[in-house]
From TrEMBL:
<dbReference type="InterPro" id="IPR041118">
    <property type="entry name" value="Rx_N"/>
</dbReference>
<dbReference type="GO" id="GO:0000166">
    <property type="term" value="F:nucleotide binding"/>
</dbReference>
<comment type="similarity">
    <text>Belongs to the disease resistance NB-LRR family.</text>
</comment>
<keyword id="KW-0677">Repeat</keyword>
<protein>
    <recommendedName>
        <fullName>Disease resistance N-terminal domain-containing protein</fullName>
    </recommendedName>
</protein>
<keyword id="KW-0547">Nucleotide-binding</keyword>
<dbReference type="InterPro" id="IPR038005">
    <property type="entry name" value="RX-like_CC"/>
</dbReference>
<keyword id="KW-0611">Plant defense</keyword>
<feature type="domain" description="Disease resistance N-terminal">
    <location>
        <begin position="5"/>
        <end position="91"/>
    </location>
</feature>
<keyword id="KW-0433">Leucine-rich repeat</keyword>
<dbReference type="GO" id="GO:0006952">
    <property type="term" value="P:defense response"/>
</dbReference>
<dbReference type="Pfam" id="PF18052">
    <property type="entry name" value="Rx_N"/>
</dbReference>
Length: 101
């Protein structure tokens, strides 16, 4: 369900915040605000579960939209993490080949 997608984003977001906050202080506030919003969504999804199971169309649409956005957020976090690792590896490789012997 959408709750598990939001849980996954929260876990990755927390990991990202801890790792990056040492040198990106401005991002820390934004990550905190996003974490708070995701926790509100989590609480809503727990309450919405019974309505969703009973076939409430509005709740089903909203849960589907939340799930889609959570997956998209997860993809963005993974892409940013991949790019950061790739850049770090590239810097390390370029530094290794450009050093005088």
């Amino acid at each position: 369900m959408a709750e598990s997608a939001v849980n996954a984003v929260l876990g990755n977001l927390s990991h990202l915040a801890v790792r990056e906050s040492t040198f990106l202080c401005a991002v820390t506030l934004e990550v905190g605000l996003l974490r708070d919003e995701l926790k509100r969504l989590q609480a809503y999804l727990k309450d919405a579960d019974s309505k969703w199971r009973s076939g409430n169309v509005r709740v089903a649409v909203l849960v589907s939209q939340i799930r889609d956005v959570a997956y998209e957020a997860q993809n963005v976090i993974e892409a940013a993490d991949y790019m950061e690792k790739r850049n770090r590896l590239k810097r390390g490789f370029m530094g290794a080949i450009s050093r005088p012997s």
